[in-house]
Every structure is written in structure tokens, then in C-alpha cells.
Specification:
Blueprint (H helix, E strand, L loop, with lengths): L1 E2 L4 E2 L10 H24 L5 H19 L9 H23 L1 H6 L6 H21 L2 H15 L24 H10 L7 H22 L2 H13 L5 H13 L6 H19 L3 H13 L10 H10 L3 H29 L13 H8 L3 H12 L4 H26 L13 H43 L1 H13 L3 H16 L4 H11 L1 H6 L5 H11 L11 H10 L3 H11 L2 H11 L2 H4 L3 H23 L1 E2 L1 E2 L2 H13 L5 H31 L1
Antiparallel strand pairs: 1-2, 3-4
Helix pairs in contact: 1-2, 1-8, 1-18, 2-3, 2-8, 2-18, 3-5, 5-6, 5-7, 5-18, 6-18, 8-13, 8-17, 8-18, 9-10, 9-15, 10-11, 10-12, 10-14, 11-12, 11-24, 12-24, 12-25, 13-14, 13-21, 13-23, 14-26, 14-28, 16-17, 18-21, 19-20, 20-21, 23-26, 24-25, 28-29, 28-30, 29-30
Length: 670
């Protein structure tokens, strides 16, 4: 959960159970130790990858079992016994890997009974942590993959091989070989997903925690209201803008919902939006936070690793698609406001841009430093460290200027504290940021660890190549059908996997097919998968961001989910433009790039208008239907057909524009 007032993460219902003062202190100390370790390795001395990942995962697992108890009530003696055993297992598996690392490397390809025992414990501990932190579905998915690895003539479960379709059949592996793959290699639990989570992702989560602790969330929300609050449907448009701003620091759809939504959803309802519409708008806009540079969630850092491109290039290539997405959501909001004759908020009810910038411009300094060093091709992990240091320095300088130069209270909501007391308060905020960062990292790290199990099995059994063959077979070589299958797969995975884990699995399974069989550029394939993996936030039956928004809006979760699904249509259409016109982000002749961007804008506008039945004025049913063939034609591989499709959509918009002018003339005459 997120504290909507403070804009920082707090544990969910199970994690807020009474854990006792001693356990609370231990959890805080562990959070501080983890934060200090991550800052040390990011800014001073990088560690061996297994040491980094082993220490990080071990502490995260211990925190998970301390914060998420076995039962839904306060721990009884048996709960302490079970949780204590899992804590001990978390510590042991991390210690064993680090302490015996040299020996494990020397005997690569061979393993001892102690290695297997430690690996079995590690696998069980990760699966149980994922069940507690994320949910039972992802644990079951990982368990099914492990069973699949055993199902073969030479596996531990040879009888199951008879039930596997021919294309999914494989030789089978025993427990020792599977555990070696998952625990001792670089393709399992300690593989690339965990490596990214244990370095750059944690650093940027910590960066977001430091920004939030210093009040950046309120600054970005105030800026959004100042910029868009006066327009018709102002609070809804402010929600879109605020989510774009918040995406620059959190990269989390649910965090964006409960942070900005706590302010925007009630105002949208007051203005005239239905509760499910208000929740759906916020969920759709907040989902854009995970695709909005410069920080786009854990998946973007993983994308950089999978594609081999610098993170700065991922950011650069993602700017235009993200802006198109937010423009689409913004347009839906404007259409609804226009249909219902809504107005914006009064100037007296809104903050002023100048005052907001005067009070909080310094929050932009760390973001500017972050972008600068990313563009200079510094390591993202090092850039995150530099940005955190910049936040602390900016906060200290601001305090000094207000305290000694302006001679006003350095804290907007507090007294003019003595230097010693202010220093203690500053240290407490640093501690709070480190602790918040550690807690916020728990679900991401656990998701990456359990996704590592799935990825490890895929590599062991060769399932990735088989999935590519299946994708090619079922699509018949048709790219549209292949993309539809990809959307379906992402939706099914989204039923049980968080966004990051869903992206990891699809990147391993589907990206090779899109690149090798359909000729899609590697970065475009991963961008498409990354976008489609977000749909679990807004697509029923599992629309996590929409359900969070429904709780704030007091609306029906499923109705809110369907509204979010409608408003987030850019999530499905924009990747199609990337596939059929990759030059719009990868670069090409300037006239062609301008043409494709204009076509995309017109298509998105026409689609939104047809879906809502309104553009300038209400649309005839026939003109709404005409948009569909026009939309299909712009994806046809023929310039003439594309021009014709664009012409149809422009004609539809022109008809409605003329109709609106005629209505206004009749109103003046009357």
C-alpha cells in the first residue's frame, strides 16, 4: 500500500500486523544496512555479481518474512517457529553462496550434496516469499515450471512426459540438475533479473524514496494542477499530467494511483465524472508512469540489459511513444468533459505556477542531474547514486539558505528549529528514506527472484525456442495474429505475475520469435513486450491499478477496470505503430518520421472520438464506423492505402467539425 497523504509506500494489511518493537527495530536496522550496502556498491566499490545478488536477496528475504508473517493475525508461537525457520533459511542460502563462491566456481559443472541442499532451501524460501509478498498464483506458476523440467524420460517425473504435447516434450532433468541450474548458475534465481533488481532498480527506488521524503510528490501534483486545473475537466487533466510527473520518480502505476489519485479522484467526481470514470482515468494515467522517462520502472532497466543498449537510449526511444500515450488519455478526458459541458476549477482554487516553482524548483535539480549523467552514458547504478547525493546536498543547501540567509523557518510545516534539532530531523528523514526504499524493494526483488526460476527452467528445457515455434505455427506467419497472441499471453501472465515478472517471461519467450521470425528490430520487440506487459494494471479481470483507484473512488472494481481499459487504449495501439513504423522512434528520413507521427496522432484522435461518439459534437453512428476501416488501412504495407486510410479519418473529423459549426450558427440564430 501507499500512504496517500505522504505519497510513500507502506506495507499492506498483512505487513502492518503487530510485529513487536524488537522485530520492528530489526527490520529498520536491516533496511538501513541494505540501503548503506547498495549505496556503497553503487557509488564506491562494485561487488562480484554473486556477492551483490546473494547479499541483497538474503536481506530482502529476511525483511519479507519479518514484515509478512505466516498468518493474518499476530504471530503465535508456531508462527514464530515457521517464520524463524524461513529467516534462517534466507540467511543460510545467502551466506553459503558467498562463503563458498570460489569453490563453486572452481568446480563449475559439478556440485556437491551441500550445494544441492542449499539450493533446495533457497528455492523453497523464494517460492514462499513470493506467495506471501506477491500472491499464490506466481508461486504456482514457478512450481509448474519446475515440475515441467522434471517431466521427461530422464527426469525425476518420467510418467508426466506422456501428457506433454510433442512440441513441448524434452529429455527431463533430475532434482540435482534443476537445483544446480536455479541456484548455482547465472540463469536462475541469481540471474539477470535479480542482478538488475539488486543494483540499479534498488538505487532508483531509493532515489524515489528520497525525493518523496523531501516532499517532491506534493510539488509535482501542485504543478499539474497549476498547469491543467483551469481547463475543462481540470482535475482529470491534472491527474494525467501529475501521473506523467510522478512517473519521473516512481515508475509504479499503483503508487501513482494512490498518491495523485487521493487528490484527483474526489475532485473529478465533484466535477461530474462518474466514480468508475474517475478511477479509470487515474488508473490509465498512472499506468503511463511506468512508460514515462526518465525512470520507467524495473522493466526498462532489464530492457537495457536484454538489448545491450545504454539505458539513455531506452529513455530517448521511449519519449515519443509515452507522450502519445498521455495525449490519448488526455483526449479521452477532454471529450468526456466536452460532452457534459464541464468547466475547470476556479483560479482561486488552484496553486499558481510561479509560486509552485518558487517553493519547489529545487526538486528539479536532482532530476536534471540524473538526466544529464544518463545522457553522458554513465552507469545507471552510478547515476542513481549521484542523484541521491544531489538530493541530500540540495536539501541541506535549501535549509541553510532559508535558515541563515532568508532567516525563515526552513520547514514549511514546522518551527524554526535549532541547528542541532534540525540536524536530528534531517537524519531521521534520511533513515526514513532508506527504510522506505528497502520496504518498497521487497516486491520487486522477490518478483525478479521467482521470475529467475521461470527463466532458468526456460533455458534448461529449451522452452523459449519451442514457444517461438508455437507462436509462428498458431499465427501462420501473420504478424497481426502474432501480436494478438502476444497480447493474450501478456494478459494471461498478468493474472498472476506482476508487471516486471511478466515482462521478463515474455522477453525470454516471445522476443526471439518477433525478431527472428517476423523481422522486428530488437529494441522495438522489447518495447512492444514492455508496453503489453503493463496491461494487467488496466485490463479486467485483473486490473491492479484500476482496483486501487476503485478503492479511492468508492466504485465497482470491475466497472472501473473496464473504464481504465478504455482510456488506456493507447497501450495497445501505439505498439502497433512502433512495429509497422519503427522509424518513428529509431530514426529515419525526417519527412517520413514527421509523416508517421502525424498519422499516429490523427489515428489516435479519430479512434478516441469514435469510441466516445464525440468530437467537436456528437458523432453519427455511420461516421463512427468509418473510423475502423481507416484505422486498419494505415497499417497496410502500402503508402497509397495508408494515405487513403488517413483521408477517411480526416474526413470523419471534418464532417463532425462542420456539423459543430452549423450547430453553433443555429444556436446564434435561435
Amino acid at each position: 500500500m501507499i500512504d496517500a497523504e505522504k505519497g510513500v509506500a507502506i506495507p499492506d494489511e498483512r505487513s502492518t500486523l503487530p510485529i513487536g518493537p524488537v522485530v520492528a527495530v530489526i527490520a529498520t536496522v536491516l533496511g538501513l544496512a541494505l540501503g548503506a550496502f547498495q549505496l556503497y556498491t553503487a557509488g564506491y566499490q562494485p561487488m562480484n555479481l554473486f556477492v551483490q545478488r546473494g547479499f541483497h536477496l538474503s536481506l530482502i528475504l529476511v525483511l519479507a518474512f519479518l514484515i509478512f508473517p505466516i498468518g493474518r493475525r499476530a504471530r503465535a508461537w508456531w508462527g514464530w517457529a515457521i517464520d524463524g525457520a524461513f529467516v534462517a533459511g534466507s540467511i543460510y542460502t545467502g551466506w553459503y553462496l558467498i562463503a563458498h563462491l570460489d569453490a563453486i566456481i572452481r568446480r563449475t559443472g559439478f556440485f556437491t550434496s551441500d550445494d544441492v541442499t542449499a539450493g533446495i532451501i533457497a528455492t523453497i524460501v523464494v517460492l514462499e516469499a513470493s506467495r506471501r509478498v506477491i500472491g499464490a498464483v506466481i508461486t504456482v506458476v514457478a512450481g509448474v515450471f519446475i515440475i515441467y523440467a522434471m517431466a521427461g524420460p530422464r527426469g525425476s517425473l518420467p510418467g508426466l512426459s506422456d501428457y506433454l504435447p510433442g512440441i513441448l516434450a524434452h529429455r527431463g532433468y533430475d532434482v540435482d540438475r534443476i537445483i544446480a541450474q536455479l541456484y548455482l548458475g547465472q540463469e536462475g534465481i541469481f540471474g539477470l533479473p535479480l542482478g538488475v533488481a539488486a543494483t540499479v532498480v534498488f538505487t532508483f527506488i531509493l532515489f524515489g524514496a528520497f525525493l518523496e521524503t523531501t516532499g517532491a510528490g506534493k510539488f509535482f501534483i501542485d504543478m499539474a494542477y497549476a498547469a491543467a486545473g483551469r481547463a475543462r475537466g481540470g482535475p482529470a487533466k491534472a491527474a494525467v499530467v501529475a501521473s506523467g510527473f510522478m512517473g519521473s520518480i516512481s515508475g509504479s502505476a499503483i503508487a501513482n494511483v494512490v498518491t495523485s489519485g487521493a487528490f484527483t479522484i474526489p475532485l473529478m467526481k465533484k466535477l461530474g465524472y462518474k466514480p468508475e470514470e474517475a478511477g479509470g482515468i487515474e488508473a490509465a494515467a498512472s499506468t503511463g508512469g511506468q512508460i514515462m522517462p526518465p525512470i520507467m520502472g524495473a522493466g526498462a532497466f532489464l530492457m537495457a540489459e536484454y538489448t545491450g543498449l545504454p539505458y539513455a537510449d531506452i529513455v530517448r526511444l521511449s519519449v515519443l511513444p509515452a507522450l502519445l500515450y498521455f495525449a490519448t488519455v488526455f483526449l479521452f478526458v477532454d471529450i468526456i468533459a466536452a460532452k457534459r459541458g464541464m468547466t475547470g476549477l476556479k483560479s482561486s482554487e488552484l496553486p499558481r505556477v510561479g509560486q509552485v516553482m518558487k517553493d519547489g524548483w529545487y526538486y528539479l535539480v536532482p532530476l536534471g542531474i540524473l538526466i544529464y549523467f544518463l545522457l553522458r552514458d554513465f552507469s545507471p547504478n552510478r547515476v542513481g547514486f549521484i542523484a541521491i547525493v544531489a538530493i541530500v546536498i540540495v536539501a541541506i543547501v535549501r535549509w541553510g539558505i532559508r535558515r541563515f540567509v532568508l532567516r525563515v523557518a526552513p520547514d514549511d510545516d514546522g518551527p524554526r528549529l535549532p541547528v542541532a534539532a534540525a540536524s536530528v530531523l534531517g537524519l531521521r528523514r534520511i533513515v526514513a528514506a532508506l527504510e522506505t526504499g528497502a520496504r518498497n524493494a521487497i516486491p520487486v526483488t522477490v518478483a525478479c527472484a521467482v521470475a529467475g526460476i521461470v527463466v532458468g527452467i526456460i533455458g534448461l528445457t529449451g522452452l523459449g525456442l519451442k514457444f517461438s515455434a508455437l507462436m509462428l505455427t498458431f499465427s501462420g506467419g501473420n504478424l497481426v495474429l502474432a501480436l494478438f497472441l502476444l497480447i493474450l499471453a501478456s494478459l494471461v501472465l498478468g493474472l498472476g505475475l506482476p508487471v516486471t515478472a511478466s515482462y521478463i517471461v515474455l522477453a525470454v519467450l516471445a522476443a526471439p520469435a518477433l525478431v527472428n521470425e517476423f523481422g522486428i528490430p530488437l529494441i522495438i520487440a522489447h518495447l512492444v513486450i514492455f508496453w503489453y506487459s503493463q496491461d494487467s494494471n488496466v485490463t479486467p479481470p485483473v486490473a491492479l491499478a484500476a482496483f486501487a483507484a476503485a478503492g479511492i473512488a468508492n466504485s465497482d472494481p470491475m466497472k472501473t477496470g473496464f473504464q481504465a481499459w478504455k482510456f488506456a487504449k493507447g497501450l495497445y495501439l501505439i505498439p502497433l505503430f512502433l512495429v509497422y513504423n519503427p522509424e518513428m522512434v529509431t530514426g529515419g528520413p525526417l519527412p517520413y518520421v514527421i509523416w508517421t507521427v502525424l498519422v499516429a496522432i490523427v489515428a489516435l484522435f479519430a479512434f478516441a472520438a469514435a469510441l466516445e461518439g464525440f468530437m467537436f459534437t456528437r458523432m453519427f453512428w455511420l461516421t463512427r464506423l468509418l473510423v475502423l476501416p481507416g484505422l486498419v488501412m494505415i497499417f497496410y504495407p502500402s503508402f497509397v492505402v495508408e494515405v487513403a486510410g488517413l483521408g477517411i479519418m480526416l474526413l470523419v473529423l471534418a464532417i463532425n467539425f462542420t456539423k459543430r459549426r452549423r450547430e453553433r450558427r443555429d444556436e446564434r440564430v435561435a
